[in-house]
Amino acid sequence: MLSYFIRRLAGAIPTLFLIIAVSFVLVRLAPGGPFDKERKVPATVEAKLIEKYHLDEPLPQQFARYVAGLAQGDFGPSFKYPDRSVSELIGIGFPVSLTLGLSAIALALAAGIGLGIWAALRQNTWIDYLCVGTAMLGIAIPNYVFAPLMTLVFGLMLGWLPVNGWGEPRHMVLPILALAIPQVATITRLTRASMLEVLNSNFVRTARAKGLPEMVTLLRHTIRAALLPVVSYLGPAVANIVTGSVIIEEIFRIPGIGRYFVQGAINRDYTMVLGVTILFGALIILCNLIADLCYSLLDPKVRYD
Fold it and tell me: Among 39, 174, 208, 287, which has the minimal tally of Cβ within 10 Å of its Cβ?
């Protein structure tokens, strides 16, 4: 497994480099610039700013300078926040987004796997129809619809929970629920479909024919095999939910990395957009690698030779 892990890491380096190169070019091709504001600065001041941030250099030279900084862990200065670097802003926002995302995915896993298994074991009953119908509703209605509705009902009408802010546990309830609901729906459907397929497989029939108790068959054989599609889904899902909770962070005014990304895109803050994009790409690669390594824990037939 160690050699497989090293090979995957080695293969991830050119992938990440390609992400950096494509993102660097695309962000420069976007119309407008970091100093094109409603209130135009004098030409001399703008020229000094362009020179300060090396934007007057040829694109290959800018790219080489940027990659050299990345090799030292420097994402560059922020154009919108001159007194802070992108690394500092990511260090401020990423722990908040990480807490929000991991809490939501943990809730989604617990609820989704439980509902999926329950629905599969009660196939074609009212329980199954209720779980599948609720899952379809959760997939059909996006979280930017759920979030304002929960804010209106539980925050403004009932007054049970705050509708913005971050720091206390009661501030986390609504955003975590809004972010987790679509994931619960998807994991429920994946678990149910995989569980039904495994329940009808030959090795489960053999285990039952040998007289194993139903609970032992479920825990030792069925559930482990049924979770493989869920693990595959979790690779990109975790990275997406951690760095992609932009709408939820905007609605609930959470100081996460998503808000910096949105403001960076609006203000053409090249380095901020690039920093979040690179972080997102690295997370996807890492999460997919962890998901692949988890296969051997769930399926004994999987070997990394």
Answer: 39
Give tens-digit pLDDT for 203-228. 777 777 777 777 777 777 777 778 88
Residue type, 202: N
pTM, rounded to two decimals:
0.74
